[in-house]
């Protein structure tokens, strides 16, 4: 076989020159395992792809559904036309959402879901006669995709420093507090008072200027930062007090990651809108969605003239029939195998116990976990602070585990089908890697 040519492909979120000098290539996948090209080594995918292959890789039922749908209806315009599957899928999805979020707007990714939610918020405020409410409040270390709206409300500096933050926005303080909350099991005890930062921003900008607050229930790409007990409920209360919409970005936290279908259900905080992607189709075909509260939908509909387009927004591939078929098959698996609640049971408790067994290592300064997500914060040498996780992630790969390096942490979100012995293997391998640092 001829040597792989890597020049044409400009890879995302990757140091291209370094990677192409020594590529790490995946050839195939099954269940929780990836197969490395060339060596044939089995790598445990402790990240579920990128927080998204929740039911494990290469599920036959999903592949068959994609195949059959592509043979029957591969594509049809969704502008002024429709197909039954899109409507059936939407009806089925909202059976899993928090009460009142009964409308779905489809896109193709988490980034597009966020852009759509921000636009819905602006349209809603204008439709109800509050057109001055055009600002958004995000949060430091928050990730909301890479389009211009998403990087405006996002709080990860490298994602916006080259491009600016063109949407009017400000940011809450993040909630990572290792000094007070190190080695918390589940939600940390300290930090509910950080929600009061929203009161400061409302006082500074004025509630009449703010359209919505958008945050992740727990920050994913920011380093698996869990909300302190009571924090999300307090954010909801402040939003209600000042007439602000609350958008929860559940692209990472949705579809069983915390032990409920959504983190908002798990922690009993109902948003006005909620974004979703990734696990919604088990990552097999790109699809994103915004779930919208009834009153928002009704207000936007009622404000438009009869026969007119109510919302001038959409994508060529919204409700793509093949993506909808993949999503329906994914829901079949989630429901049949009880995966949406599995992380809240024995497997989640085993994950917690196994991760925290690493606390005895001098190089480990914090372990964070909830459901089937976790992070191991490492003591970084001075010359690698803020970048140590990436180095250790590469070492973990060589040891047979895919874990994501973020800052100085190893972050993981394994497929929801993982078993106890596989968790033990992950932790055993990581123990060896960390001891060798």
Topology, element by element:
Layout: H1 16-21, E1 26-30, E2 33-36, E3 42-45, H2 48-51, H3 60-72, H4 84-93, E4 101-107, H5 110-127, E5 135-139, H6 148-153, H7 157-160, E6 169-172, H8 178-181, H9 197-205, E7 210-215, H10 231-241, E8 245-249, H11 263-266, E9 273-276, E10 288-293, H12 294-303, H13 321-337, H14 339-342, H15 346-356, E11 364-370, E12 373-378, H16 388-399, E13 401-402, E14 404-406, E15 409-412, H17 420-435
Parallel strand pairs: 3-13, 5-6, 5-7, 7-8, 8-9
Antiparallel strand pairs: 1-2, 2-3, 4-10, 9-10, 11-12, 12-15, 14-15
Helix pairs in contact: 3-13, 4-13, 5-12, 15-17, 16-17
Concise synopsis of the structure shown:
The chain is an alpha/beta fold and 437 residues long. The chain has 17 helices and 15 strands. It is 36% helix and 16% strand.
């Amino acid at each position: 076989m001829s040597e792989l040519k890597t020049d044409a492909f400009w890879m995302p979120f990757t140091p291209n020159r370094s990677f192409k000098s020594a590529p790490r290539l995946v050839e195939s996948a099954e269940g929780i395992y990836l197969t490395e090209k060339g060596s044939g080594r089995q790598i445990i995918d402790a990240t579920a792809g990128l927080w998204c292959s929740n039911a494990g890789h290469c599920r036959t039922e999903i592949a068959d559904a994609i195949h059959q749908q592509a043979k029957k209806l591969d594509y049809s315009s969704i502008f002024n036309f429709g197909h039954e599957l899109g409507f059936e899928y939407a009806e089925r999805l909202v059976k899993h959402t928090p009460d009142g979020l009964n409308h779905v707007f489809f896109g193709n990714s988490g980034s597009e879901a966020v852009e759509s939610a921000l636009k819905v918020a602006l349209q809603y405020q204008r439709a109800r006669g509050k057109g001055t409410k055009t600002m958004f409040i995000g949060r430091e270390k928050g990730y909301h995709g890479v389009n211009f709206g998403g990087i405006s409300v996002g709080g990860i500096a490298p994602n916006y420093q080259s491009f600016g933050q063109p949407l009017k926005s400000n940011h809450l303080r993040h909630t990572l507090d290792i000094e007070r909350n190190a080695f918390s099991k589940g939600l940390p005890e300290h930090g509910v008072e950080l929600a009061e930062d929203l009161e400061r921003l409302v006082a500074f900008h004025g509630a009449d200027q703010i359209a919505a607050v958008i945050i992740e229930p727990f920050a994913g790409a920011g380093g698996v930062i869990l909300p302190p007990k009571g924090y999300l409920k307090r954010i909801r209360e402040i939003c209600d007090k000042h007439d602000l919409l609350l958008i929860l970005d559940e692209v990472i936290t949705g579809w069983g990651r915390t032990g409920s279908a959504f983190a908002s259900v798990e922690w009993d905080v109902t948003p006005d809108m909620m974004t979703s992607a990734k696990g919604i189709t088990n990552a097999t075909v790109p699809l994103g969605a915004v779930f919208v509260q009834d009153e928002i939908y009704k207000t936007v509909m009622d404000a438009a003239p009869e026969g007119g387009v109510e919302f001038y927004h959409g994508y060529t591939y919204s409700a793509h029939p093949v993506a909808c078929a993949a999503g329906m098959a994914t829901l079949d698996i989630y429901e049949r195998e009880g995966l949406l609640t599995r992380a809240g049971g024995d497997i989640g408790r085993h994950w917690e116990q196994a991760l925290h067994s690493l606390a005895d290592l001098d190089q480990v300064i914090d372990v964070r976990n909830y459901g089937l997500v976790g992070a191991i914060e490492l003591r970084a040498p001075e010359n690698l602070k803020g970048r140590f996780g990436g180095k250790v992630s590469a070492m973990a790969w060589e040891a047979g585990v895919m874990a994501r390096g973020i800052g100085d942490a190893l972050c993981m979100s394994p497929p929801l089908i993982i078993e106890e012995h596989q968790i033990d293997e992950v932790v055993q391998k990581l123990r060896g890697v960390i001891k060798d640092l």
